[in-house]
Design a protein that fits this description.
It is a single-pass type II membrane protein. Keywords: Coiled coil, Glycosyltransferase, Golgi apparatus, Manganese, Membrane, Signal-anchor, Transferase, Transmembrane, Transmembrane helix. GO terms for molecular function: glycosyltransferase activity. Belongs to the glycosyltransferase 31 family. By secondary structure, this protein is an alpha/beta fold. The strands form 2 sheets. The chain has a 7-stranded mixed β-sheet with strand order 3-2-1-4-7-6-8, sandwiched between helices. The chain has a 3-stranded mixed β-sheet with strand order 5-10-9, with helices on one face. The longest helix is centred in the N-terminal third of the chain and has 100 residues.
Amino acid sequence: MLQPKETMKGRNKHTASTKWIVVFCIFSFALGMLFSNRLWAPMDWDDQIVSLRRRQQELATTVSNDFATKEKDKEELMRGYKEAQEAIKSLDNSIAKLRLELPSARDIDQMGKSENLPALGMSSNAMSNREKAFIVIGINTAFSSRKRRDSVRETWMPQGEKLLQLEREKGIVIRFMIGHSATSNSILDRAIDLEDQQHEDILRLEHVEGYHELSAKTKAFFSTAVVKWDADFYVKVDDDVHVNLGTLAATLARHRSKPRVYIGCMKSGPVLYQNDVKYHEPEHWKFGEEGNKYFRHASGQIYAISQDLATYISVNQPILHKYANEDVSLGSWLIGLEVEHINDRNMCCRTPHECEWKAQSGNACVASFDWRCSGICRSVERIKEVHNKCSEDPATLWSVLLR
């Protein structure tokens, strides 16, 4: 009976031993896992951190390179854009100039049909055969101003062979501009014709003379001159103003490369609404409330415009509005265009003494007159005195480089 009990004890001992082995194995495995994680995990994390940092650096380098490339591309793109803009601007200027310089057949035909300018219906062939000039100067004069014209001829305007030489060598054309009387072939017209035969310095306009028709006369001058002469500049000057031709030519030559220029002494006088004043403006209401001023425009004693502006006036003269004052009219024709207004105070020196001390200092004025008289006061008697005191060195005109 004892043997079975011992046998049972042996079996129980064997079972307990097996259980402990299993527990010991599980404990050892768990301990090994714990030890392994504590020992090797930091190494794996370090590797991962190093790897992440490497990838971050590579990404930063890639982004930096991409940014630099894009910046370079952006600079090239902006450079190309600016060059394209400049090319477009240059092309626009060229097109605008061509449009002005090459009026269509319809425009020329319209010029010919104008009741004021019937002689301008010229073919494009005739336009291309115009006389080449640098400056065409039109001296505004009247039938009653023979003494003024003679005083100009005796001072700043060359005569005879000298006048022809000035045209040939310097391209400077000077003419007294005058229209016709209201009566056909009147004694006034015949007197002008005889004077022109004597001096050959008068440009007749298809225009009826009258004090209140100066705006129309200005249109007629530019329209006639631009058909007869292919000039860089067209100048209007009054017959009671003193001009230094060499200084005028040198001044205009500085602006020769510009497409559309309007040069003179710019001013902005009051719009005179009172009926009893000399320069009354009947259309004063167009300029706003009483007391307003005109827009900037060149004083009427002398101003110059480039060829494309003279052509513009010639082509569009039937629809250009005329205000009471001729200089205001011209300013209104140009103010809505892409025109450079050049305010040159050397074109309105006072007499005396401004033009005198400037001439003595070697910086002669372009033009001189008295503001209070809108010209040289008593010009027939005084223009010689002004010429003696305010004229440029005689060599200036013939030494100036123009061509």
